[in-house]
């Protein structure tokens, strides 16, 4: 500073202007140094660092690079140079500022703090990205926790920045946080509730990324794609995105289909309705026919022997079908379907398989098929279920039974056609 001032005085500049000009020269030199340092950091240091990161075997540093952590660190260089240059302006008064050095220190440190916030934010995002590459991230997502860390750091740094600009100790402002606790709890109510809910969801393993959940209240029926501090994002099967408040998953009920996938079987539970007018005892011709059916051969043989023994032991006159025990077409049909399910290659044999009769209704007698497919994938499950009922509906008539259905326009047309023919004859 004295060198430039003396140089200007020696070249005919008066004392006072020479002092101001020397400060101007120093400021220009500092700006040039900042520009050159920033250029060197970006064009040389950052490029060398990028090349090193791209060529090594580690993956985590690539995430830091993609998130721009190193780019944001570079922005600290000019601020650090300006901060270190502040003593050059010691005891200089400028307009309303009593000490220019103090002003430069405050502004430079404020810029460093703000730039550090962006570096910290990018670093936290990088930690989350690195963690998501691990299998444990599906079970224990930490995005909500990291968002809480971000929020706390933002609040603390904001207080430090304000205190720095005011020239006060941060402890003075921090001591006033207790009085603002009610305000903060009101403003950040969702964040606080979401944070608590996130801890409960993850600690109790209630929800994972990739789980299929149903929550009709919020129109959610699909896969969980993200769990954050305040919300859970669900992608429905029609590809729409539903955002659910995290605390709602604790306060309200939802269905998680993860257990079905882990269990290794997806339930098939659907009835068919039999016209009760078609139900009756099996004739001898029907029994002989049923003996030729692969899934009924052993059943018919064993059942015939069982019924014959029962009727003989009880000395029952079987000339009337109402006496004793006899095979029915509906019972034989249930036995056939049961054996058909046991031999189906795409059903889980370790889970319940049942063909049961439900109470009769105005739509007929419901025969419910209850079993589990071995493939839980949706499209495969629907194909297996459709194949089973295609077959069952097709073989009903072989047992002298009829499927119940409401009369259609075709049925009414056939009735009218029959009435017309009868009237003509």
Automatic annotation (TrEMBL):
One of its GO terms (biological process) is cellular response to osmotic stress. Residues 339-403 form the Mechanosensitive ion channel MscS C-terminal domain. The keyword Membrane applies. The chain crosses the membrane at residues 20-41, 73-97, 103-124, 145-165, 171-188. It is found in: Cell inner membrane. SUPFAM superfamilies: Sm-like ribonucleoproteins. Residues 190-258 form the Mechanosensitive ion channel MscS domain. Its main location: membrane. GO terms for cellular component: plasma membrane. InterPro entries: LSM_dom_sf, MS_channel_C, MscS_beta-dom_sf, MscS_channel_2nd, YbdG. Keywords: Cell inner membrane, Cell membrane, Membrane, Stress response, Transmembrane, Transmembrane helix. One of its GO terms (molecular function) is mechanosensitive monoatomic ion channel activity. It is a multi-pass membrane protein. Belongs to the MscS (TC 1.A.23) family. This is Mechanosensing system component YbdG. It comes from Mobilitalea sibirica.
């Amino acid at each position: 500073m004295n060198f430039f001032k003396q140089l200007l005085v020696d070249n005919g500049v008066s004392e006072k202007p020479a002092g101001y000009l020397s400060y101007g020269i120093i400021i220009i030199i500092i700006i040039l140094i900042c520009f050159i340092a920033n250029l060197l950091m970006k064009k040389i240091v950052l490029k060398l660092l990028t090349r090193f990161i791209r060529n090594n075997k580690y993956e985590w540093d690539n995430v830091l690079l993609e998130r721009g952590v190193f780019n944001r660190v570079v922005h600290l260089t000019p601020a650090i140079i300006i901060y270190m240059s502040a003593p050059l302006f010691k005891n200089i008064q400028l307009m309303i500022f009593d000490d220019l050095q103090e002003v430069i220190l405050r502004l430079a440190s404020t810029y460093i703090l703000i730039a550090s916030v962006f570096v910290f934010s990018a670093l936290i995002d990088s930690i989350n990205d690195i963690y998501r590459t691990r299998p444990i991230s599906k079970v224990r997502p930490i995005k909500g926790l990291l968002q809480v860390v971000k929020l706390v750091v933002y609040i603390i740094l904001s207080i430090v920045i304000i205190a720095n600009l005011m020239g006060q100790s941060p402890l003075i402002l921090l001591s006033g946080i207790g009085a603002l606790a009610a305000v903060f709890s009101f403003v950040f109510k969702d964040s606080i509730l979401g944070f608590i809910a996130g801890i409960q969801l993850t600690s109790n393993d209630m929800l994972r990324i990739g789980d299929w959940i149903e929550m009709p209240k919020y129109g959610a029926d699909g896969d969980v794609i993200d769990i954050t501090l305040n919300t859970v994002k669900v992608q429905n099967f029609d590809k729409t995105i539903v955002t659910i408040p995290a605390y709602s998953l604790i306060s309200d009920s939802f269905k998680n289909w993860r257990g079905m996938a882990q269990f290794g079987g997806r339930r098939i539970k659907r009835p068919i309705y039999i016209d009760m007018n078609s139900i009756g005892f099996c004739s001898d011709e029907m029994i002989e026919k049923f003996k030729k059916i692969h899934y009924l051969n052993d059943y018919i043989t064993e059942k015939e022997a069982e019924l014959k023994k029962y009727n003989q032991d009880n000395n029952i006159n079987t000339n009337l079908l109402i006496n004793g025990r006899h095979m029915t077409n509906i019972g034989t049909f249930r036995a056939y379907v049961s054996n058909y399910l046991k031999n189906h290659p795409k059903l889980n044999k370790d889970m319940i398989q049942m063909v049961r009769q439900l109470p009769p209704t105005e739509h007929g007698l419901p025969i419910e098929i209850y079993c589990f497919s071995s493939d839980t994938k949706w499209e495969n499950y629907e194909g297996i279920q459709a194949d089973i009922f295609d077959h069952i509906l097709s073989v009903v008539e072989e047992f002298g039974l009829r499927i119940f259905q409401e009369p259609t326009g075709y049925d009414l047309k056939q009735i009218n056609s029959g009435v017309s023919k009868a009237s003509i004859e």
